[in-house]
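Field reference: sequence -> structure
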Amino acid sequence: MSSAVREKGRASAEATCHGIVRRMVSLPRNIIGGVSRVMGHGIDLMGIGGGRRNQPNFQLPPPPPPPPPQPAMVAEEWAFLTCFEQQYGSDHPFFYVCRFMDGLKIAEDENKFLFLYIHSPEHPFTYSFCRETLCSEVVTQFLDANFVCWGGLADRGDGLHMAATLRPGSFPFCAVLAPGSGDSLAVLQQIEGPISPAELVEILQRTMEEQGLAFGSGFRAMEEERRRADRVLREEQDAAYLSALHIDKEKSRLKDLRSEQGVQKKPVQAAKNKPTKKQCGILLKPATTVSHNETANQEKDPRVTQILIRFPNGERRERSFSIMDKVQSIYRYIDSLGLPGVDKYRLVSSFPKRVYSVEEMGMTSLKDAGLHPSASLFIELL
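Structure field:
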């Protein structure tokens, strides 16, 4: 294998048993300060591998093009993504634009491991790794479907603090992390040096399979609670939507009824045609019954689709749309929120990756676009 997987634990935090290493590290105070603490599950998390492996002698690649200068006035959360996209474009895994602790909390909320990438633009192996491995389609789709991804610069901000904590022996440097108890962090896997897309996916897949057992019970309980909360939210949204739809239909029916009564020429004939209170009660009763049935069967309504939108800052919002609404209507909803920093963007599904740009699919119905009966979309900033 063309990468050296290194497990560098301290004697006080590392124990070996049948080739499995347990490694816990303490989070630096610079990262913990000012951010709410991430509470773990109280489970000992284990990493893969057995001690330190010797790094093979790699032949240095041709010198890459010089990295673009880093903008002086960039918010800390945007520093890595701005630097990365200037040189490698926007086709890459979905990196959350946030501080490290916020990314770890997002991973915990979504019951996923955190994929950490520390970017060193000047290292000779960085260019080929980013261009050929990290930005490859197979790695991008695998990470978007199974991990929460966070990146940082090796010489700045949270990326610098995490590099000092994990002490990588070489770059490129990736790690699979999970929250531990208190202020500790579980390092499940470290990957250093150049590596092919297939090898990276194989290591990540094996890490998920072996480490998933340690998280299984806690994750399943949290996932079930999240699904229950999402189901209740959908039921409330659908009930409000169907109630408003019924009120509009009833108003339209009464308006048409008054119009028919107004065109009658003879008052006597108009009086005969005027419904009594009893008749009105008969007319209104079926409509009320239909509304009750629609509310009871709202999840089976083929006219409604549920769209879950994930924002770059980790926020998630879910909204009901008609299946005949256009893809452009999702863009209009996002624009109406007025979120800072979300100006130029496109909607992308994670696995398999598909772009729903407003230029190409803006006038396509949600049903024809395959976004029915439900779908999850990322906001990818341009």
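Note: The radius of gyration is 28 Å.
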